[in-house]
Design brief:
It is built from six helices and four strands; from the N terminus they run αααβαββααβ. The chain is an alpha+beta fold. It has a four-stranded antiparallel β-sheet, with helices on both faces. A hairpin with a 2-residue loop joins strand 2 and strand 3.
Length: 192
């Protein structure tokens, strides 16, 4: 009777598991669909809060929506979706909104796609990346500047808004945009 070394018998199983490349294309597409939905929820909820505040109190007071409610909406979506959700930009207003290397590359690629004629509503991307703590699913959705955004993010900002922005965000870089420009991204990630 021949004895089988258990470790030798299981070696191919461990080797195959260790060489797995991560989620399948179908799994990645499903995660991307979930991330897309989550990003859409952030954009819709924040847009609704901004519209309500602008109509009730004017654009100066709407600045507090972006400062206070936007992070709260992102935190709520993070909790309900299992993703980490935030807004970032190389020209950030919020000091916590500085993009990491992947986010900066994603925004740059989305800007190039927009310049090549792609429709703003289709500007998103995702990838599974290796990190020091393991693999992560990363997703980015472009935040394209709308006409209403120009009041606080454009080139001709009214004095009252400039004063409020200077008081709330002394290191503000999020101005100088025109309609249709990528102003930042919704960044979503999840460890795998």
């Amino acid at each position: 009777m021949k004895k089988i070394n258990l470790a030798a018998a299981l070696l191919p199983v461990f080797f195959a598991a260790g060489c797995a490349t991560g989620p399948s294309a179908e799994q990645q597409a499903a995660m991307a669909a979930d991330a897309r939905s989550t990003a859409g929820s952030l954009i819709k909820q924040l847009g609704g809060e901004l519209k309500k505040s602008i109509e009730a109190n004017g654009p100066v007071e709407a600045i507090s929506v972006c400062k206070e409610k936007a992070p709260a909406i992102a935190a709520s979506l993070s909790k309900s979706s299992g993703f980490a959700v935030k807004r970032v930009s190389p020209k950030n207003r919020n000091p916590n909104g500085v993009p990491d290397a992947w986010e900066a590359q994603a925004q740059d690629a989305l800007e190039k796609r927009l310049a090549a004629g792609e429709k703003p509503e289709t500007l998103d991307t995702w990838q599974v990346v290796k990190t020091s703590s393991g693999k992560e699913f990363r997703y980015a959705k472009a935040l394209v500047t709308q006409q209403v955004c120009l009041t606080c993010h454009g080139t001709d900002i009214p004095d009252g808004i400039k004063a409020k922005l200077a008081a709330e965000y002394p290191q503000d870089k999020a101005t100088g945009y025109g309609p249709g420009m990528v102003r930042g991204i919704v960044s979503i990630k999840r460890p795998l």
